[in-house]
Design a protein that fits this description.
Elements: H1 2-7, E1 29-33, E2 38-43, E3 46-51, E4 58-60, H2 63-71, E5 78-81, E6 96-97, H3 106-112, E7 116-119, H4 124-134, E8 140-142, H5 151-155, H6 158-165, H7 168-187, E9 192-199, E10 202-203, E11 206-209, H8 215-222, E12 225-226, E13 238-241, H9 242-249, E14 254-256, H10 263-269, H11 277-280, E15 284-286, H12 302-305, H13 307-318, E16 330-331
Parallel strand pairs: 4-5, 4-7, 5-6, 7-8, 9-12, 9-14, 14-15
Antiparallel strand pairs: 1-2, 2-3, 10-11, 11-13, 15-16
């Protein structure tokens, strides 16, 4: 019944009204302490697990989950991973390679002897893959931090990883520190409403920008920036034509989350990128400062766990602070 209540939350209700007891921001799970163990409930799709002993062998389909485990000093529990070439976080190095996250190897999943496979359900295909693995007798647990809107709600999913590994106390400690720092940065904002921000890139004629329910829009708002789509409640990114993009963002002061590694590369990708004030003034940033050769990007691992550092980046960008102060954002030249 509780899960149905959460799913039934309407747009008119505030996000806070759907937050389960014990959580401060996240709506997608609940953790309950009982006499026999810790009960973890995940709501979409609904799962209920009673954790009597800490899980010692976990597999993961997402690099985000690697970041969570590392933050609570539970990286030793990581026994198998998908796409190891995309992992930025230091790991043991003896993890079993499960193959591509879109279709993990059933043989390797069984070989790993996992207590559970941490899954994602970005769409129907992912659900089918998880169901296929479940039929092998392997428990799959959905870690759906990506479904949360606010950065702090996403970060709070560290509590689920803490509950699974017997490190709920450590997870709570990490999250409380993150929350405190995030709210401290937010409270010190003077007001950057005169600084307009844009995000996204032109992809095959369509420019996708964050809706008001996207974590990036939360970051922009908490940093005090001007952004035209705070009130848009679309669940997914907003697709704009190039004409609409120019109308909304031609005068944006800064561009955050660009797809290139330099201004010249952006221009080569699409000449239309050069039409914006932010490009012309050289105030363009991507999220690739912490990357390794081959593609690993710490923005997708540490960034989810530490949104206070992401918020600090946006604040510094709005203030045109030195590039050396940035954590994940990189200034394009």
């Amino acid at each position: 019944m509780f899960a149905l209540c959460c799913v039934a939350c309407t747009k008119q209700q505030t996000e806070q009204s759907c937050v389960p007891a014990g959580n401060k921001y996240a709506t997608g799970f609940q953790i309950t302490q009982t006499d026999t163990g810790v009960v973890v409930e995940v709501f979409q799709p609904y799962q209920r697990l009673c954790i009597k002993e800490p899980m010692r062998r976990l597999g993961t389909m997402s690099t985000v989950q690697v970041g969570f485990l590392y933050a609570i000093d539970a990286i030793d529990c990581l026994a198998a991973v998908c796409n190891p070439e995309l992992i930025y976080t230091p790991v043991k190095g003896d993890e079993i390679d499960l193959g591509d996250s879109m279709k993990p190897s059933a043989e390797r999943v069984l070989q790993a002897g996992l207590d559970a496979l941490l899954a994602v359900n970005y769409g129907q295909y992912d659900n089918l893959e998880a169901a296929r693995i479940e039929k092998l007798g392997v428990t799959t647990i959905y870690i759906n931090e990506w479904q949360e809107g606010s950065p702090l709600a996403r970060a709070e999913w560290i509590r689920v990883l803490g509950a699974l590994t017997g490190k709920l106390h450590e997870a709570d400690s990490v999250f409380h520190e993150v929350e405190s720092e995030y709210l401290n940065y937010k409270s010190q904002i003077t007001n950057h409403k005169s600084t307009k921000i844009m995000s996204g890139n032109n992809f095959r004629g369509t420019w996708y920008v964050p809706s008001g329910k996207n974590y990036l829009a939360y970051l922009f708002k908490d940093a005090g920036a001007e952004y035209p789509f705070y009130d848009n409640e679309r669940e997914t990114s907003i697709p704009l034509t190039i004409e609409e993009t120019i109308r909304y963002f031609h005068d944006a002061d800064v561009w955050v989350g660009a797809g290139g590694n330099s201004l010249a590369e952006l221009a080569q990708m699409d000449e239309k990128h050069t039409w914006f004030k932010a490009y012309q003034n050289g105030r363009v940033y991507n999220w690739r400062k912490q990357t390794k050769a081959g593609g690993p990007n710490n923005f997708w691992e540490r960034g989810v766990v530490h949104p206070e550092e992401m918020l600090e980046d946006v604040i510094h960008i709005l203030n045109n602070a030195p590039d050396s102060t940035l954590h994940f954002a990189e200034h394009l030249h």
